[in-house]
């Protein structure tokens, strides 16, 4: 069997990365220890325990997403769709260790505007191979937990972001080209956006005042607009009409996502405190409200109540509350889920979105859900001058400006990366392989006996 050159190159790359770990000299003490890092006695054991738990919760979301997406696609593409999510735990983890975390939280690179310094991205050399990332807390970023724990928590966010995108181009993408794309996306879109929103001097967080408690902008908007770009580059499937293969998979995936989302949102408090408890409450309530809103709105529009609709509604509610989970009350979170479910439902069934063939409605659910969450956060977030309803007219205006900038950056950035990937390795499978299904043509595996898959 002839082995394609691209797979040889891939093996060489992973070999170099892994073997270099043997020769990488790990610093014995943190860089600039007196200026950046605290002391061991500042670590709070309760916070460490909660953040370790949150890391595990967020990690389980990616397999949950695999089941969620895998159950929705046609019977010839279940394994390939699930693997596209699952493989992110391998690819993005190594990218994050080698350079991604440094790009997101390394020494800031930016510009001086008036009396303030605002950064766009971190230096890739600051924490390369997790240099200086150890057991001491960071004075500005992780004050009561080891910096390594913070890095691992953020890693789980980086892992699931490109996995979310996969639902948009399911059933038609070549696996090796997809691997290349998620590497590019993680380095050039996710990490800089993460820095811009969450690093203390990041331009979106410090200059524009963007409030994103747990990733509505960083994760869901970036994935949603990247999904839209991918659909436009790849084009429609040859046969876009399919019946979801396994609704119980979708129910299981939704349960895993909802369970893991507690760590996603409540863990973003970075402490075992009251804010975490409130984020737990708002997350659960928004999802419940969105689930019921979705199925009832379906019914009054002539569609039957479905398990699939309930699951999609629940996820939309989780997406919408993510940027505001620690900033609003539990009653307000019901409104978040209600509004997001209505808007996303209308977008899902719009003729335009059906026309571009977003396979699993990623933009309508994650992109639109993230947008609605960002807008509603700018209206309802509590605190003096924190939002439109609390005296922050300027904050609201800055949020809307940032929303536009993030949309442009993530959409056109992803569109450009898709084009580059497509030039290096064509992303669409052949028409013959698409008919056979990606499970067999890409992986030589099938969920069903071959005679049933044909």
TrEMBL record:
The chain crosses the membrane at residues 7-28, 48-70, 82-105, 145-166, 178-198, 218-235, 247-264, 276-296, 308-328, 334-353, 360-380, 400-418. It comes from the Bacteria. Gene3D superfamilies: Ammonium transporter AmtB like domains. Pfam families: Ammonium_transp (PF00909). Its main location: membrane. It is found in: Cell membrane; Membrane. It is a multi-pass membrane protein. Keywords: Ammonia transport, Membrane, Transmembrane, Transmembrane helix, Transport. Residues 49-446 form the Ammonium transporter AmtB-like domain. Belongs to the ammonia transporter channel (TC 1.A.11.2) family. PANTHER family: AMMONIUM TRANSPORTER MEP2 (PTHR43029:SF10). This is Ammonium transporter. The lineage of its organism: Bacteria, Pseudomonadati, Bacteroidota, Flavobacteriia, Flavobacteriales.
């Amino acid at each position: 069997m002839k082995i394609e050159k691209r797979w040889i190159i891939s093996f060489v790359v992973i070999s170099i990365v892994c073997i270099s770990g043997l020769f990488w000299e790990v610093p014995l003490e943190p860089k600039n220890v007196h200026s950046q890092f605290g002391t061991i006695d500042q670590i709070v054991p309760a916070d460490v325990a909660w953040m370790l738990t949150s890391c595990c919760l967020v990690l389980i979301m990616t397999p949950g997403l695999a089941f969620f997406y895998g159950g929705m696609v046609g019977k010839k593409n279940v394994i390939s769709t699930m693997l596209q999510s699952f493989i992110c735990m391998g690819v993005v983890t190594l990218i994050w260790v080698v350079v991604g975390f440094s790009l997101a939280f390394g020494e800031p690179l930016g510009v001086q505007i008036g009396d303030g310094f605002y950064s766009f991205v971190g230096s890739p050399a600051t924490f390369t191979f997790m240099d200086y990332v150890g057991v001491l807390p960071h004075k500005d970023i992780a004050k009561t937990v080891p910096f390594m724990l913070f890095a691992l928590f953020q890693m789980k966010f980086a892992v699931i972001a490109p996995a979310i995108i996969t639902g948009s181009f399911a059933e038609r993408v070549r696996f090796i080209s997809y691997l290349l794309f998620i590497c590019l996306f993680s380095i050039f879109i996710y990490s800089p956006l993460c820095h811009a929103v969450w690093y203390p001097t990041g331009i979106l967080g410090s200059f524009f005042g963007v409030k994103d408690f747990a990733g509505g902008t960083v994760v869901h908007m970036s994935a949603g607009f990247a999904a839209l770009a991918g659909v436009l580059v790849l084009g429609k499937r040859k046969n876009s009409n399919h019946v979801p293969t396994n609704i119980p998979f979708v129910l299981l995936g939704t349960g895993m996502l909802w369970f893991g989302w507690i760590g996603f949102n409540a863990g973003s408090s970075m402490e075992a405190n009251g804010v975490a408890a409130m984020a737990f409450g708002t997350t659960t309530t928004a999802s419940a409200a969105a689930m019921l809103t979705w199925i009832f709105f379906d019914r009054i529009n002539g569609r039957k109540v479905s398990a699939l609709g309930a699951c999609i509604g629940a996820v939309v509610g989780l997406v919408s509350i993510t940027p505001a989970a620690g900033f609003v009350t539990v009653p307000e979170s019901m409104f978040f889920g209600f509004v997001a479910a209505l808007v996303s439902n209308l977008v899902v069934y719009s003729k335009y979105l059906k026309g571009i063939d977003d396979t699993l409605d990623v933009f309508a659910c994650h992109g639109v859900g993230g947008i609605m969450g960002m807008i509603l956060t700018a209206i309802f977030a509590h605190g003096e001058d924190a939002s439109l309803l609390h005296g922050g007219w300027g904050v609201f205006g800055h949020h809307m400006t940032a929303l536009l900038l993030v949309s442009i950056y993530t959409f056109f950035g992803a569109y450009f990366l898709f084009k580059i990937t497509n030039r290096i390795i064509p992303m669409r499978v052949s028409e013959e392989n698409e008919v056979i299904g990606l499970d067999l043509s890409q992986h030589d595996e099938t969920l069903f006996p071959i005679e049933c898959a044909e």
